[in-house]
Amino acid sequence: MLAFTIRRLLGAIPLLLGVAVLSFVFMQLAPGGPDALFARNGRMSQAQLDAIRHNMGLDRPMHEQLFVWLGNLLQGDLGTSYTQYQPVTEVIWDVFPNTLILMAAGLALSLVIALAFGILAARRQYGIFDNITSFVSYFGLAMPVFWFGLMLQLLFAVKLGWLPSAGKVSSEGGGIIDLLKHLVLPAFTIAIGSIAGWSRYVRSSTLEVLGQDYVRTARAKGLAEQRVVGGHVLKNALIPFVTVVGIDVPLYLTGAVLTETVFSWPGMGRLFFDSLATRDYPVLMGALMLGAVLIVLGNLIADLLYGLLDPRIKYG
After folding, report:
1. Which domains does the chain show, CATH number per domain?
2. pLDDT digits (tens, 9 = 90+) for 4-13
3. First-to-last CA distance in the chain?
């Protein structure tokens, strides 16, 4: 398994290099950028603007800027934010823990609800519960995330007043309870799409395993249904589900852009949106590279979990 892990990590290097190059080129070709940002200050002379561009290396040819950026990237230097005048690594690190909290809460909700809905729907195929979960799943897949977040705010924050509408903590401050209250709505918003899709995967894979001969044999031996499902069905039904989770979990960063913006949650998604609005390209490229790394790691972890779920899988 160690050799397999090393090969996968080495194979990810060209992929991450390609992401870095494409991110840099697309950002260079995008309109706006630091020139437009600094030009907004009418008190700056052209000589001052040229001096700023020279100090930032923006007057060099694009290929030279690319090589400099890649060299700095290998040393862990993502550059300096155009708007916050701080290293990009510090800007990202200040908000990344908040996104991890939101992702962990959303992932926990998604896993628990999707597994419960999927398994119960499969055990009661075409029953009332199966039809209800099917409707909820299709609704969750078709519904825009930002609209669902706004509806949750309108219902639970404005109409009922049970939960805060936005932010991470109250203006007067608070402890863990206050944080959890602020976390409920954005966590459920970011989880609803995963719940909808994952529950269908769990249902279909569970139905496939329930029809296998070894399940019928286990039932013929007189094993309790709980032991059949927990010991024989669930572990094998989770194998395709792990693939989906491994791919989707890093994409929570993408969903966090809308969710964190709607709920003013101070995380990576809100940072990406604000940086996009101000054309803060170093921060955008840093966020894209972090997302690419998380996707690679998510797929690697999913592959390694196969061996734990199915002993028949061997890594050469």
Report:
1. 96-309 (1.10.3720.10)
2. 778 878 888 8
3. 7
